[in-house]
């Protein structure tokens, strides 16, 4: 009986529930729509969160890069400050060193000035001797005027502070007058040495050495030709002596011709440079080949009577810019 009552009670409940189930079925689309809407909202919120996270990460990466750059810049600036500090310390040490060595520097500079004066005196004597011995006209370098007192600092007793010493150092360094004087003297001496060396080379090349010993039988100028008996210009100087007499180069140069040449017979021509050439004609024997450089006084040939000649002699010519000039002038025979 109780079981029946329980079943009836259950049936009653079911009958009462059935209308609620129908209502639930009718509301299911609405519930689904609500669920879909909630899901969409959640999806939008999730997308927004993801986007915000990505933006935050990008900003964080940018900030990290900027932070790294700032750290690098700070490190660079720190290194630069350390470098400047090192330079400053080094300069301070240099200043201290300059202060300690100022007096010895002044003494050194004063000694250099004295050496310059002594060198000037020796150069004057040297140039005078050079010109006298070589009959040159080398000019003495113009001495640059300077005031020794301008480089002589006051004594230690007159200095009241280190600032005075420091000012002396600055003036000495900034002025650089003593350095300029020494440099100008060195330049002048170098130029003088170069000029004297050039002059010596020129004098060595100049054909002013008598090429052979003997008797002067015919001078430079117009004369009666010994063969044609007509008046003609004689472009050289004839020196007569025994056959085989030594003929030497009148100056340093290069032999540009060594061979037989018509009226001159066996002849040698030397190019001395500086516009000078010398000719040695009627030789019996030629000892040096073309293209050979010979020094002044070198044995180049032997005297003879080859070519158009009436006897053993040397026909010696000097040409300047290819124009014959009087050899007696070059040889200082007049």
Q: What's a quick, concise take on this entry?
A:
This protein has 4 helices and 12 strands. The protein is of the alpha+beta class and about 325 residues long.
Tell me what the structure shows.
- The protein is α+β, with helices and mostly antiparallel strands and 334 residues long.
- The protein has helices at residues 2-134, 162-175, 177-205, 327-330, and strands spanning 215-218, 221-224, 231-234, 237-240, 246-248, 253-260, 266-273, 276-286, 293-294, 299-303, 313-320, 323-325.
- Among the domains are: 103-205; 215-330, Glucose Permease (Domain IIA), CATH 2.70.70.10.
- The strands form two sheets. Strands 1, 4, 5, 6, 7, 8, 9, 10, 11 and 12 form a ten-stranded antiparallel sheet that branches.
- A hairpin with a 6-residue loop joins β2 and β3.
- α1 (2-134) crosses α2 and α1 (2-134) crosses α3.
- The longest helix has 133 residues, at 2-134.
- The protein starts with a helix and ends with a helix.
Largest sheet: 10 strands, antiparallel
Distance between the termini: 182 Å
Query: Low-confidence stretches at least 5 residues in length (pLDDT < 50)?
Result: 11-19, 150-161
What order do the SSEs take from the amino end to the carboxyl end, as H and E?
HHHEEEEEEEEEEEEH
Please report the first level of CATH classification, the CATH class of one domain.
Mainly Beta
Helical segment count: 4
Task: Label the overall shape.
Answer: elongated
User: How confident is the prediction overall: mean pLDDT?
Assistant: 77
The CATH homologous superfamily of one domain:
Glucose Permease (Domain IIA)
The CATH topology of one domain: Glucose Permease (Domain IIA)
Rg to the nearest angstrom?
56 Å
The percent range for helix content is: 40-55%
Q: Which structural category fits the helices and strands?
A: alpha+beta
Q: Count of DSSP E strands?
A: 12
Please indicate the percent range of residues in DSSP E strands (runs of 2 or more): 15-25%
* CATH A-level architecture of one domain: Distorted Sandwich
